[in-house]
Each structure stands twice: as structure tokens, then as C-alpha cells.
UniProtKB/TrEMBL annotation:
This is NADP-dependent oxidoreductase. The keyword Manganese does not apply. The keyword NADP applies. Residues 10-295 form the Enoyl reductase (ER) domain.
Length: 297
């Protein structure tokens, strides 16, 4: 089968589309014929070797952890799902024709494979950081870098919970943030004062890693009310870095429920083929995403 792989750490150019043996579902796992795989910042961070000291991997390695597709193999001990079912979830080496999933949920009706592939990691992350930052109904959450996949999920989940969200993004994404229920403002010079003029900030999330932790701490008045998923230096300012995933099965179940009720929709900004995986990583690293990017198989 075809799989995107890399044999050395480095830039997007180390990615290759290669022939490898098909993986098979072990106990408690599913194998799917992949229809689409989500493109996440963690994918290119792993490719660059950023996590080798914390979570080392052996090379050559595949790429990707989110996917949607058709079940074609069910591992021992798995119940409630059959060959032919359409699912989305988390696994490994998902930029491929076949992938093994360790967590999954049935795809809600009306959702395309491309759309479904964009949800797993971003929804788990959004649910996790909203919980960790401790923001409640009636309070205001500031989200720095709000137009990407995680930001899109945070805005909608927070709105559903009665939380007011102030979102920062580029000028081109202001209307997009407003469409998701956020009070929108631009980043860049003077952004802190623009946020202050919008009112009190009870908690803040850094989703872009753009060097704003000091300012977020000043705006909230409490470093424990600031969490970053993108700036490893956040603890230097007393803020927290959130990088350990919670329960993916629970996150997928909640995502499916929100999607089915029309409370969560993350658009796919751009799709790529397996052969275009390097371009997908280039675009992901450049940022300025509106919604999600996916690789279509």
C-alpha cells in the first residue's frame, strides 16, 4: 500500500510516498480504508524531530494521527462496529491507504470523509484546554490565534457553554470569527489595548505560539489562567503548557453529538493528495488557517 513516510528528520522535503506492507488491527483496534486524514501542527513538529526527547520514534516513520474512512478489519475485543461502517478517529500513520485506529466514533450523518478527518485531535484539544483553563459560563475567554482548527472548535464549544469568547486573528479572518460567535479583533501592534477595550478577560488560550504569553498573563492578571498548546516557553511566565491528550473516545463521542445537533462545524479550507503531503505541511506551518486542512486518499 501507499504511505507517506520520512526516513530522517527535517523539512517537508524529507516526506516520501512509499510502498509499505499493510498494517493490521490488533486487539481493541480497527483498521480502516482511509478516505481522508487530518493535517495537524503536531505532524510537522514530529517530522522535524521536536518531540524526540519526550516521545522518541524510530525511523522510517509514517505521518498523521487523525483519519476518517471505512472499517475493513475489526480487532479482537471490539464491539459495536462492523466492516463497512464509516468512522473517524485517531491512530497512527494515517497519511496512507490503510491505517489502524485506536479510538473512533461513527461518523454523524451528513458529514463527508474530508470534514470528519478534521475533527479528532482538534476537538480533543479544545475540550481539554477549556477544562484546564477553568473558564465557566458567564465568563470571558480570550483566544489568541482563533481561526485555525482548534480555535474554531474552542469558539463553538465555549459558545455552547455560555462563555463569551474574544478571538484574535488576521484581518482576513475577522468575519469568520464573528460567524462562530466570537468578538473578533486583529493581532499585531496595539492588540492588547484593543482587547482591553472589549472588557474583562477571565482566562486566555494561546493556540498559535506567537510569543504572546506575557501579554496574556497581563490581561488575565493570573498566569494560572493562561494555557498554551504551542509555546513550550509558557511556564517561564507562570502559565501552563498543555501537551498531553485526554480521553480521545470521550472527545469523539462529544464531537459526534455536537455535530449531530448542529452545534459544531469546522470547514475544510484545503485538501491535498497523498503526493502533496509536503505542500500540506508547508501550508500548515505558515499558519493563517481558516478551519482545517486534510489529505484525501
Amino acid at each position: 500500500m501507499k504511505r507517506v513516510s520520512f526516513a530522517e528528520f527535517g523539512g517537508p522535503d524529507v516526506l516520501r510516498l512509499v510502498d509499505v506492507e499493510e498494517p493490521h488491527a490488533g486487539p481493541g483496534q480497527l483498521r480502516i480504508a482511509v478516505r481522508a486524514a487530518g493535517v495537524n501542527p503536531v505532524d510537522w513538529r514530529i517530522r522535524e524531530g521536536q518531540f524526540q526527547k519526550v516521545h522518541p520514534i524510530e525511523l522510517p516513520a509514517g505521518v498523521g494521527q487523525d483519519a476518517a474512512g471505512v472499517v475493513d478489519e475489526v480487532g479482537d475485543g471490539v464491539e459495536g462496529v462492523e466492516v463497512g461502517d464509516h468512522v473517524f478517529g485517531e491512530g497512527s500513520s494515517t497519511y496512507a491507504e490503510f491505517a489502524v485506529l485506536s479510538a473512533w466514533a461513527r461518523m454523524p450523518g451528513g458529514l463527508t470523509f474530508e470534514e470528519a478527518a478534521g475533527y479528532p485531535s482538534v476537538v480533543e484539544t479544545a475540550l481539554r484546554v477549556i477544562r484546564q483553563v477553568g473558564v465557566r459560563s458567564g465568563q470571558t475567554l480570550l483566544v489568541s490565534g482563533a481561526s485555525g482548527g482548534v480555535g474554531s472548535a474552542v469558539l463553538q464549544i465555549a459558545r455552547e457553554r455560555g462563555i463569551t469568547v474574544i478571538g484574535t486573528a488576521g484581518a482576513a479572518n475577522q468575519d469568520y470569527l464573528r460567524s462562530l460567535g466570537a468578538v473578533a479583533t486583529t493581532y499585531g501592534e496595539g492588540w492588547v489595548e484593543r482587547v482591553r477595550q472589549l472588557g474583562r478577560v477571565d482566562a486566555a488560550l494561546d493556540l498559535a505560539g506567537s510569543g504572546v504569553i506575557r501579554e496574556l498573563v497581563a490581561l488575565t492578571g493570573d498566569p494560572q489562567k493562561v494555557i498554551s498548546i504551542a509555546d513550550l516557553g509558557a511556564p517561564e511566565f507562570g502559565a501552563r503548557f498543555s501537551g498531553v491528550a485526554g480521553s480521545m473516545p470521550e472527545a469523539l463521542a462529544e464531537a459526534a453529538g455536537l455535530i449531530s445537533r448542529g452545534k459544531l462545524h469546522i470547514p475544510v479550507e484545503k485538501s491535498y493528495t497523498l503526493a502533496e503531503a509536503a505542500a500540506a505541511h508547508v501550508d500548515s506551518q505558515a499558519g493563517h488557517t481558516r478551519g482545517r486542512r486534510v489529505v484525501v486518499v
